Amino acid sequence: MFRKIHFVLVPLIAASLQLQAQAVVPKNKVLYVVDSVPVGTGHDLRRELPYEELKSEAIASVNILKYPETLQHAKYRPYDSVLFIITKAYAARPAELKAIPSTDQLTRKGNIYFYKGKPYSGKVLDYHYDGSIYHEGTLENGKYTGVHLYHDPEGLRRHSYTYDKDGAEHNTGTDTNGNMTSRVVRTDERLLLFELYYPNGQLKHRTKRVKNKEIQTSYYSSGLLSDSLVRHLKTNKTYYDPQRQLLRKLAEQKDYLKLRELFPSDPATYMYISAHKRQDGQFDEALRYMDTCIALEPLEPMYNYERAMLRLRKFAYAADKVTFKWDYELSRYLDKKPELHIPEADKQKIMADLKLFEPMKYTNRDFVKVYRYVAEKF
């Protein structure tokens, strides 16, 4: 359940630190350590929270360990330079709070978390760069226990951990409003049950292990089945729901007339047609079908993200038809900060769709790039 912490410095300070760090390096490998926690390598590192950036005004001090001095420290030997960054919030933090480890300082072995070589018992605290708490909770004998709180921009998440008589971990997640969002049951060796829920309480996805079979079922928020499969773990053979296979086959054959005839109320029907229209450069038609898809399934944030990307792709194609083919990676194109002439009404629609995708941002690395472009240009 640990987050992977990444960060990005403002361009000027990032470039300056990178030049210093690479002044005497043979392999160009740089490690960043922020507030005593290693957070990643590279020069353009992003946290999971795309709005949270480590900017120059938040930094209290920077120290650099360069090659060959890195060879004197076992954990830093793979790196040519190590940048130790202390934020102002960390510098002002009381000693008793600094003594409480971050989850990123724990080492996981199986289902047990270790600190300084021993299963950890006690409190853990993770912070945003502004000093506010991101995550707080307790571990007992190396296992999450009790209630863990996660403070996200979109609200407060709770994960409650309990253990049954056989030692299996039960993890139930709820959102700010107290609605159940997830349920997990696992042992040290394997995942037994994984469930996700829509805001309306409808089951979204279930993965369940029964003896040597893994059964996966997914649903729309209406309760309509969206996918189903059974995987035999010993033979690795997978069996799919015949109706879902037929739907995918018709989409692959581009038999959209038959697809709409057999699956008129299935959001996937219109998602597939939208993708085909996009490939043909018919962006307005593609958007129309995506609108229908979302009307049928208003609680799937990924569809909103796809519609935002589709709308951006429309204007990127209009601006540069030579470079921007239908399969050109949009996030890579937006990284170049192109000037796109997007009407205000479309900008608002893009922002609204990205906002709805916000709770799912951890599942999509490109979201950060897209959001940064939109935040800067809109």
Description:
There is one protein chain. By secondary structure, this protein is of the alpha+beta class. The protein folds into three domains: 11-92, no CATH class; 96-241, Outer Surface Protein A, domain 3, CATH 3.90.930; 244-377, Serine Threonine Protein Phosphatase 5, Tetratricopeptide repeat, CATH 1.25.40. It has eleven helices and 18 strands. The chain has helices spanning 11-21, 88-91, 95-98, 242-252, 256-262, 267-279, 283-296, 301-319, 330-334, 344-357, 366-377, and strands spanning 30-34, 37-41, 59-66, 81-87, 107-109, 112-115, 118-119, 122-127, 133-140, 143-152, 155-163, 169-174, 180-186, 191-197, 203-210, 213-219, 225-232, 238-240. It has an eleven-stranded antiparallel sheet. The protein has a four-stranded mixed sheet with strand order 2-1-4-3. Strands 5-6-7 form a three-stranded antiparallel sheet, with no helix packed on it. Strand 14 and strand 15 (203-210) form a beta hairpin. Helix 7 (283-296) runs antiparallel to helix 8 (301-319). The longest helix is centred in the last third of the chain and has 19 residues, at 301-319. It is globular, with a radius of gyration of 24 Å. It starts with 10 loop residues before the first helix and ends with a helix.
In short:
The protein is an alpha+beta fold and 378 residues long. The chain folds into 3 domains: 82 residues, no CATH class; 146 residues, Outer Surface Protein A, domain 3 (Alpha-Beta Complex), CATH 3.90.930; 134 residues, Alpha Horseshoe (Serine Threonine Protein Phosphatase 5, Tetratricopeptide repeat), CATH 1.25.40.
